[in-house]
Specification:
It is a single chain. The chain is of the alpha/beta class and 270 residues long. It has one domain. The chain is 27% helix and 21% strand. It contains 7 helices and 13 strands. Strands 1, 2, 3, 6, 7, 8, 11, 12 and 13 form a 9-stranded mixed β-sheet that branches. A two-stranded antiparallel sheet has the order 4-5. Strands 9-10 form a two-stranded antiparallel ribbon. A hairpin with a 4-residue loop joins strand 9 and strand 10. Helix 3 packs across helix 4. The longest helix has 22 residues. It is globular. Bound molecules: iron/sulfur cluster. Iron/sulfur cluster (SF4) binds next to loops. Iron/sulfur cluster binds next to loops.
Length: 270
């Protein structure tokens, strides 16, 4: 179990299941979702996609402990008040996690948007200090993104900012689109994006029966008028959280958790 100032491993049932396979250990960063920090919005599509009420950040331990919510708000405020300092803190944290994984003999995986939807690939440069054996050769290396700074780490996220799927993302960053029917314009746009880019799309189902009803031939998500409908195999996305190892071109079926079970916004299907 790794405990950093921003990221931590071993606190998520799904990543623990995946980590048990012994190849990867996964650390996640949890910020205060949407505009909960009071300083800015880390989920630009949350209102459109209707996901804030059922947001996973309100499930599990965060639903019970104010201290967890407060810690997430404090981290998010650091992000908004000084981006460069925040990125420096993140670099130090991931470096420590990489060392921890080396000692354990596992590969590091990091999910930065545990409860946020920040576009880390743009406008988030960072600096890493290269420390060769001779101290006088120590130097600063500047990187366009955290993904470029840590090629040894497998990063992944879910996103509702569907335009990100059209970008040329670094090879060590895997993005899964997130579906919602709360807003038909959003639904159609995300389905169109999945069809055009081949990106995987995660769908939150109310229960197992709902998910099984659309297997194995796949459901017809999307709007027939747009010409973009999604007929795909549904895989069990709750088995592990290692989205980077999913086959390409599938629907990642998840079950509703916490308050999301009662969601009627259209975020949860079925
Ligand atoms: S579900 Fe994702 S995008 Fe929506 S509020 Fe939560 S973290 Fe933000």
């Amino acid at each position: 179990m790794y405990r950093g100032t921003l990221i931590r491993s071993g606190g998520n049932a799904k990543t623990i299941k995946g980590d048990k396979a012994g190849e990867y250990e996964t650390a996640i960063m949890y910020l205060a979702p949407a505009a909960q920090s009071g300083m800015g919005n880390v989920c630009p599509m949350a209102a459109t996609a209707g996901c804030e009420m059922g947001c996973l950040s309100k499930a599990g331990r965060a639903a019970i402990f104010n201290s967890i919510v407060n810690a997430r708000i404090a981290k998010t405020r650091r992000y908004f008040s000084n981006r460069a300092a925040f990125m420096a803190e993140l670099v130090k944290d991931i470096e420590a996690f990489v060392r921890y994984c080396e000692r354990k003999g596992v590969k590091p995986a990091v999910r930065l948007n545990g409860t946020s939807d920040i576009q880390w690939e743009v406008a988030h440069p960072c600096v890493r200090y290269i420390k060769p054996k001779h101290p006088q050769q120590e130097r600063e290396a500047h990187y366009a993104s955290i993904f470029h700074a840590f090629p040894e780490v497998q990063f992944y996220d879910y996103t509702k900012v569907y335009k990100r799927a059209y970008r040329s993302l670094p090879a060590n960053y895997s993005l899964t689109l997130s579906y919602s029917e709360a807003n038909f314009a959003y639904r159609d746009a995300v389905v169109k994006t999945a069809v055009e880019t081949g990106a995987n799309i995660a769908v939150v189902y109310r229960n197992k029966a709902t998910r099984n009803n659309v297997m194995p031939s796949g459901d017809a998500f999307g709007n027939i008028e747009t010409g973009f409908r999604l007929y795909r195999e549904v895989i069990d996305g709750d088995e592990t959280d290692m989205r980077f190892s999913d086959p390409r071109g599938v629907i990642v079926g998840l079950y509703a958790k916490g308050p999301a079970k009662r969601d009627t916004s259209g975020f949860v299907v079925g």
